[in-house]
Amino acid sequence: MESHERAVMRVLAGEKLERPPIWMMRQAGRYLPEYRAVRTQAPNFLDFCYNTDLATEVTLQPIRRYGFDAAILFSDIFVIPDALGYPVNFEEGRGPVLEPLSTELVDKLDQARTMEHLAPVIATVERLRAELPTETTLLGFCGAPWTVACYSVAGHTTQDQFAARIGSYQDPELLTAFIDQLVEASITYLVAQFDGGADALQIFDTWAGVLDDIGFEQWSVGPTRKIVDGVKAQRPNAKIIGFPKASAARLKRYVEATGVDAVGLDWTVPAEVAQEIQKIVPVQGNMDPMRLVAGGRALETGIDHALEVLGNGPHIFNLGHGVVPQTPPEHVAEMVKRVKGL
Prior knowledge:
This protein has helices spanning 7-12, 33-39, 45-50, 52-66, 79-84, 103-108, 114-131, 145-153, 162-170, 172-196, 213-234, 251-258, 271-278, 289-294, 296-310, 329-339, and strands at residues 70-72, 88-91, 95-98, 137-143, 200-205, 239-244, 262-264, 283-287, 315-319. By secondary structure, it is of the alpha/beta class. The protein has a 7-stranded parallel beta sheet with strand order 1-4-5-6-7-8-9. A two-stranded antiparallel sheet has the order 2-3. The longest helix is centred in the middle third of the chain and has 25 residues, at 172-196. The radius of gyration is 19 Å and the shape is globular. The relative contact order is 0.14.
């Protein structure tokens, strides 16, 4: 293999590399002073995501600073409902606030406006591919429909997503109608990212772990399978990483039933489960982000454990969820150095 080939893509093709490639979820974010400086230039968060210049800049910041093997498009999972015409707002200190889900809102959603609305995001993808180093993988993404819908049922996040779970039992027809719209728009969006220059795509299902067995099949596995099938029907070569957080016991089922090419592991996935999954598909993960905050011995131990447990198969080193704002940037530098064996 030639050295300029993108290491992340080699792993996604099933190759075990001498050292795993490394990137972090939310690597462009508030823990970086340069990110915070750029963030002040946009009046609100969605405007920030739709500003091609700003989104390109913050995506590139962690690549410049740390030399990660992959850059992930800076955007947000809520651009999809926003593009469909679903009312979305971001409030400082509270995060995403959506209008509570209703039949009237779902009936007004419009697939035809999706790509025009998301054109600035696709422009960011195109710009990134042109500006990134050749060897750096560019990842596109979307939120899984269940995770996006969780914030819509009540209009905001609730503890263990109890509002979304109750809603899924009391009015499954309404939730199905909304999720079907999200699935269709997500397929369109991911194909456009792939065509714009994304090398691979990730589907974030942050709230998959709160579902029961029936719900997991209905709301996590089913919609994810539709997205994977829909993207691959149009772009058979697209590589898709699934990330069903807090679903260790169901990972094998998820991988086999959704058809994803690789799977992200959160930090609670036991070593023996991770190794079994790694025999089926490449894995990504799975150090606890709090070890990165703590630094020192805790960080070194976490890195070495992940490398040891997952070192015998195709592995992309990552955190078990996104980097948190409290993370000292110098700890990230230490992590990259240790993973790369420098």
